TrEMBL record:
NCBIfam families: PRK10201.1 (NF007570). It comes from Streptomyces misionensis. This is G/U mismatch-specific DNA glycosylase. It holds the Pfam family UDG. One of its GO terms (molecular function) is uracil DNA N-glycosylase activity. Residues 19-180 form the Uracil-DNA glycosylase-like domain. InterPro entries: MUG/TDG, Uracil-DNA_glycosylase-like, Uracil-DNA_glycosylase-like_sf.
Length: 182
């Protein structure tokens, strides 16, 4: 159960950095937009109860059971990790500037070159477009590579993304899972 946080607790987490869950040579490095305030308050990625990342990760077959955000380190045992385009925690992604996205894309590229995951999976086509100046990107595998790392754009698992259900998101995550096995 996620502990209850007051509005003041969440506001105090604004701009806080959340450590990545990474290692060299991962199968897939998932990349969120930026941490939300609950993620920053708990230190656990995708911590908001309405976020569908953890259920979809399991439904798509990446994990044998649905992990809780507090179990995020277990991802490493499956060859998976988590980072963000922009490290700064905000209440909403629309608080980020174009310059933050561009700088985030630059820093993410450096991180991917250093860690060399097989796949970088950016969750959110809008974030990908902003970070990599690719206005025509769509969900799915991208032409772009970073060194030997291939890139896949996944739907944003936020509960606000009503265009995608957990089932349709799991299908797209599953396509990546199959590709990452090659």
């Amino acid at each position: 159960m996620t502990p209850r946080f007051t509005k003041a607790d969440l506001e105090a987490a604004r701009d806080r950095l959340v450590p990545d869950v990474v290692a060299g040579g991962l199968r897939v490095l998932f990349c969120g937009i930026n941490p939300g305030l609950l993620t920053a308050a708990t230190g656990h990625h995708f911590a908001r109860p309405g976020n569908r990342f953890w259920p979809v990760l399991h439904l798509s077959g990446f994990t044998p059971r649905q992990l809780k955000p507090a179990e995020q380190e277990e991802l490493l045992s499956y060859g998976l990790g988590i980072t963000n385009v922009v490290a700064r925690a905000t209440a909403r992604a629309d608080e980020l500037t174009a310059a933050e996205y561009a700088e985030g894309g630059r820093l993410l590229t450096e991180k991917v070159r250093r860690l060399e995951p097989r796949w970088l999976a950016v969750v959110g086509v809008t974030a990908y477009r902003a970070a990599f100046a690719d206005r025509t990107a769509r969900v799915g595998p991208q032409e772009r590579t970073i060194g030997d790392t291939r890139v896949w754009v996944l739907p944003n698992p936020s509960g606000l993304n009503a265009h995608w259900t957990a089932a349709t998101m799991a299908e797209e995550f599953g396509r990546l899972r199959v590709a990452a096995q090659d």
